[in-house]
């Protein structure tokens, strides 16, 4: 019986965030389908914004998953995209939304009248 040497796996730990696993998978698929040279060029010229699932976003913000869905329905949450039937959120969109939620000035609201 011959011993077959397999190349090292490019798997990412299963406890890593979904966007890390997805990025590693996309990179591996690019290497397999179009060769390392083209995949390297693609990664260097078109950086992909990591995407968060509803559960990952809720965990990051410390709110219930239902709140994320409510925000999407009322237009109050971060911008998202739908991939198939799964809503995803770009990390840069989430950071932009968080910055927009900051108070203009710290402290209590000024009283008028």
Q: End-to-end span in angstroms?
A: 90 Å
**Ranges with pLDDT <50 over ≥5 residues?**
none
Strand content: 5-15%
What does the radius of gyration come to? 20 Å
| Tally of distinct domains | 2
Report mean pLDDT, rounded to a whole number. Answer: 75
- The overall strand count is 3
By secondary-structure content and strand pairing, the structural class works out as: mainly alpha
Q: What is the chain-wise order of helices and strands?
A: HEHHEEH
The name of the CATH topology of the largest domain is Arc Repressor Mutant, subunit A
Helix content: 40-55%
Shape: elongated
How would you describe this protein?
The chain is mainly alpha-helical. It has two domains: 17-48; 49-103, Arc Repressor Mutant, subunit A (Orthogonal Bundle), CATH 1.10.10. 50% of the residues lie in helices and 10% in strands. The protein is built from four helices and three strands; from the N terminus they run αβααββα. The protein has a three-stranded antiparallel β-sheet with strand order 1-3-2. Helix 2 (54-61) packs across helix 3. It is elongated, with a radius of gyration of 20 Å. It starts with 17 loop residues before the first helix and ends in a 13-residue tail after the last helix. The model has no long low-confidence stretch (mean pLDDT 75).
């Amino acid at each position: 019986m011959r011993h077959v040497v397999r190349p090292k796996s490019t798997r990412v730990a299963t406890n890593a965030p979904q966007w890390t696993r997805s990025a590693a998978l996309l990179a591996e698929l690019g290497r397999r389908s179009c060769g390392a040279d083209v995949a390297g060029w693609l990664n260097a010229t078109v950086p992909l914004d990591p995407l968060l699932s509803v559960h990952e976003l809720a965990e990051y913000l410390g709110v219930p998953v239902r709140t994320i869905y409510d925000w999407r329905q009322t237009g109050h949450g971060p911008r998202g995209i739908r991939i198939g039937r799964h809503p995803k959120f770009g990390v840069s969109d989430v950071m932009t939304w968080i910055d927009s939620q900051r108070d203009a000035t710290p402290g209590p609201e000024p009283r008028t009248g």
